[in-house]
Amino acid sequence: MTTHRRGWQAYTATALAAIVVYLAVPAAPGWESAFSVAIQSSFAAAVLVGVRRVPEGDRAPWLFFGLGLLCTAAASLPVQVGGDWLAVDGPDLSDLLYLAFYPSVATGLALMIRQSRRRLDRAALVDALTVACGIGLLAWAYSIEPALRDDTTALATRLVTIAYPIADLVLLAMTILLVRSNGREGRRAPLLVAVAVVGYLAGDCIWVVLPHVNEGWADFWWTARLVNCVYLLSLLVLTLAIVWPRVRGDGGGAGAVSHLTRLQLATLTLAMLMSPTLLITQELTGGIVDGLAIGIGSAIMFLLVMVRFTQLLKQAERQSALVRELSRRDELTGLHNRRSWNDEFPMFLARARAENIPVVVGMIDLDHFKHFNDTYGHPAGDQLLRSAAQAWTGELRAYDVLARYGGEEFIVLLTGLSLTEAVTAVERLRAVTPLDQTFSAGLAEWDFEEPADDLVARADKALYAAKNSGRDRVCTAGSLLSAAQD
């Protein structure tokens, strides 16, 4: 184990011990603030120490996280040395320092998301907005709207009060994007940062929910102490994330996050249930007071769900088209395979009959391919097939079709050519066959009447005639018929 890792383990143990001691310090502002400032200052200092081991181009997110930690550490100092430092009827310096934590961390999250993957994942964005909107309804009902309605406090104070839940929602949405941006690789730093941010937001939620559950609990000193421990543990996790600073991915996260896992589906379902749950709760506890907000929130979430559904539908269509394409393509050569040929060739002949287009079909078989495989190995045989397919395709016209029929056997569709012209075209293919290999070929000209299978069978019979005649040659079904008549 390296000295670096042992040092971080020692720091973690010390920080955890300090948090435990913090729980037991006297219930006096001086003691409590002193411990809080000391512990959180160590977090900021630890990040500054750890960032030196991060590549210079990747340091920006950690520097902003460190700035946020420094702001939270400094926020307790005004209380420690004498209370409010700003106007009596407005927010104090502590509020401004605590609020500064949010844009600092948000900037760090944005930079980390950019490092994780260079392009925006729209599916992850829709999921993040859906969850934020669902929780935002609760924030509106239990925090934002009551603060706006409170005429007994100054406007600046009310604005600061609603700034906290709004900042929480922004961080929540960005954290979801970060987790989704982490992709298949699952790097530790983004996951730890996400855990830290969610833990910090959980502390904010406790402060909002607690008075609605039991207003008396919020007045106990130990309640604040326990919630502050949640904050401290979350900030410790954020600090320790720098032990595994690697964030940059391979850009493969986007494809990985387009689908919905069970956890993601459950999260989106819970977010969607926030609206009816809030509606039912208000109806059962004295009447609906946030009907307009609930209606707007429900409409927004419905639209987001429809966007997500459309994304999934388009993805399914793309995957289905890809599967169909792959099932009709030869994996080794990239040519049409036998299934594709059998499906499309009869339809092509029907169009050719209607438009009176001459058609010649050729069967091509690489000579002594088994011997080539046995001599040079199957990888070399596969390379020969790929190279041959590429070379032959380069000699064909854009509207000719070459397909792999099976094994070392290929089939070619030549249109608008007479049988003699088709022989010349296939001879050009023989001239570019790679690795000094040869092939035998059989051609059959369509008579505008025979079925597709019969035409292919005649070309196949001509192929075997070429092989039986010594290989490395082209035979035509017409020449066979002439020989039989003679």
TrEMBL record:
Highest taxon of the lineage: Bacteria
UniProt keyword list: Membrane, Transmembrane, Transmembrane helix
SMART domains for this protein: GGDEF (SM00267)
Pfam families membership: GGDEF
Membrane-spanning segments: 7-25, 31-50, 62-81, 96-113, 125-142, 162-179, 191-210, 222-244, 265-282, 288-309
Keyword Mitochondrion in record: no
InterPro entries: Diguanylate_Cyclase, GGDEF_dom, Nucleotide_cyclase, Rev_trsase/Diguanyl_cyclase
Record domain GGDEF: where: 357-479
CDD domains: GGDEF
UniProt protein name: GGDEF domain-containing protein
